[in-house]
């Protein structure tokens, strides 16, 4: 649009007559309409970035999964809400007396963090637009989550535990 305005403004008045405008418009429209398809997010060589079919084809809906949609949303909210009483219980009790609370608190904190970081990766570095780095970041996050879970288990089993750590940090 801007290029056609620029061309029209720089042309002499004689060429910009009614017939000249129609010729120029038709030339620009032929150039603008090409045989390539529009690819959302830009053209890639990845096979999933090419639109196939027509506008009259039915939409293929994904299969229902309990890991997506309202079940996933409800689980995230329940997990976030349960962290408040578990952290409060960590202040009241001692970790050596309640190792189950240590385990639940450690697992809940790590899973809450994983879900938050995974949402950021899915929203901002999705694999449709970033076909190489998107899956790499997803698997890096999964690997880091497993590593942190192992570390929290070792800390709870062989050291003072999360509830004792929270109590010491709070009173320090």
UniProtKB/TrEMBL annotation:
A ubiquinone binds at residue 124. Heme b binds at residue 112. GO terms for molecular function: heme binding; metal ion binding; ubiquinone binding. It is found in: Mitochondrion inner membrane. It comes from the Eukaryota. It holds the Pfam family CybS. The keyword Iron-sulfur does not apply. It is a multi-pass membrane protein. The keyword Signal applies. Keywords: Iron, Membrane, Metal-binding, Mitochondrion, Mitochondrion inner membrane, Signal, Transit peptide, Transmembrane, Transmembrane helix, Transport. GO terms for cellular component: membrane protein complex; mitochondrial inner membrane. Residues 1-16 form the signal peptide. GO terms for biological process: mitochondrial electron transport, succinate to ubiquinone; tricarboxylic acid cycle. PANTHER family: SUCCINATE DEHYDROGENASE, SUCCINATE DEHYDROGENASE [UBIQUINONE] CYTOCHROME B SMALL SUBUNIT, MITOCHONDRIAL. Belongs to the CybS family. This is Succinate dehydrogenase [ubiquinone] cytochrome b small subunit. The lineage of its organism: Eukaryota, Fungi, Dikarya, Basidiomycota, Agaricomycotina.
């Amino acid at each position: 649009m801007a290029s056609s305005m620029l061309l029209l403004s720089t042309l002499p008045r004689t060429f910009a007559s009614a017939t000249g405008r129609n010729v120029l418009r038709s030339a620009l429209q032929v150039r603008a309409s090409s045989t390539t398809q529009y690819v959302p997010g830009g053209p890639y060589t990845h096979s999933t970035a090419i639109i196939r079919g027509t506008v009259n084809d039915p939409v293929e809906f994904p299969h229902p999964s309990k890991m997506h949609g309202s079940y996933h949303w409800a689980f995230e909210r329940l997990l976030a809400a349960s962290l408040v009483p578990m952290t409060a219980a960590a202040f009241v009790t001692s970790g050596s007396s309640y190792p189950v609370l240590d385990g639940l608190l450690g697992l809940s904190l790590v899973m809450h963090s994983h879900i938050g970081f995974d949402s950021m990766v899915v929203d901002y570095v999705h694999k449709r637009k970033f076909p190489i780095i998107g899956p790499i970041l997803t698997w890096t996050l999964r690997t880091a989550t497993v590593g942190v879970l192992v570390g929290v288990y070792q800390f709870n089993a062989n050291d003072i535990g999360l509830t004792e750590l929270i109590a010491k940090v709070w009173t320090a």
